[in-house]
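Please fill in the sequence for the structure shown.

STRUCTURE ENCODING:
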């Protein structure tokens, strides 16, 4: 990746790096970055690219990885902007030699110290937007660190906007308690502005060996399908989906059954997309 391919970059300083999972489990960190650049501004749901200096494999001078912003704009000041990202320390196994290698960006960020300067690109356009009418319903569905933009949305509508009149529902699947990234906020700072009359989170854990977070999400949706389906059928509901690509398969199974057939569901989803009420960010 060349410098020109990266696009314009700004300097971001690490002001906080906090592990939000126990030492005995997979490491997930919440990292707060500060950018002292007046032109750098973001909206909830956007992402940034973190540039890891090389050299890297295949002669690449840079490596860039995008992360969704996991906080609202309440920390922004006239002279600087602060935002947080969620980072899971990742490793992968080479299918040829069986060797275990650290993920480039995740390990770089998890090892970054307070005061360290990083190069950040973006922010990048997000498929997600918060409806301008606070009477609209929000149905958010995700797994893993895909939950990050939804955390920012929840903070924004209950802290900055002072509440939300429409119904807000979060469906979140996880393999284990470590993956309940959202719950770290739910049990701490979210309670400071949590509006219990309009907001509910349905979190499901995998309860069988080899059960994935997507399976857990489908289980959560199955248990509450009447409520989710009722919201989808209302003309003022906006649906946001984030996480692994297989999340779409889980949704199609649950809502295809609710609609009476997969053909009915595809037609309904197509209409939601046409009306700008369905948005998704899926990755492999």
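FILLED IN BY: designer on duty
SEQUENCE:
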């Amino acid at each position: 990746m060349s410098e020109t391919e990266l696009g314009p970059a700004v300097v971001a300083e690490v002001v906080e790096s906090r592990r939000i999972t126990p030492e005995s489990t997979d490491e997930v960190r919440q990292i707060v970055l500060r950018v002292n650049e007046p032109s750098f501004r973001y909206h909830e749901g956007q992402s940034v690219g973190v540039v890891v200096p090389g050299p890297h494999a295949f002669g690449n001078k840079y490596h860039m990885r995008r992360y969704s912003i996991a906080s609202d704009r309440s920390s922004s000041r006239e002279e600087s902007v602060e935002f947080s990202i969620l980072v899971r320390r990742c490793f992968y196994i080479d299918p040829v030699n069986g060797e275990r290698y650290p993920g480039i960006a995740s390990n770089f960020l998890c090892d970054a110290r307070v005061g360290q300067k990083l190069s950040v690109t973006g922010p990048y356009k997000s498929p997600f937007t918060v409806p301008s009418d606070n009477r609209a319903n929000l149905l958010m569905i995700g797994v893993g660190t895909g939950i990050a933009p939804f955390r920012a949305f929840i903070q924004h509508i209950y802290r900055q906007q002072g509440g939300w009149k429409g119904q807000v529902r979060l469906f979140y699947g996880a393999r284990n308690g470590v993956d309940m990234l959202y719950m770290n906020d739910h049990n701490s700072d979210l309670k400071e502005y949590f509006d219990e009359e309009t907001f509910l989170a349905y979190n499901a854990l995998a309860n069988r060996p080899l059960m994935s977070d997507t399976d857990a999400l489908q289980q959560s949706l199955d248990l509450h399908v009447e409520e989710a389906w009722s919201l989808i059928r209302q003309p003022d509901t906006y649906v946001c989906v984030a996480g692994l690509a297989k999340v779409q398969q889980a949704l199609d199974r649950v809502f295809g059954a609710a609609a009476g057939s997969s053909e009915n569901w595809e037609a309904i989803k197509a209409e939601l997309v046409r009306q700008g009420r369905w948005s998704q960010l899926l990755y492999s």
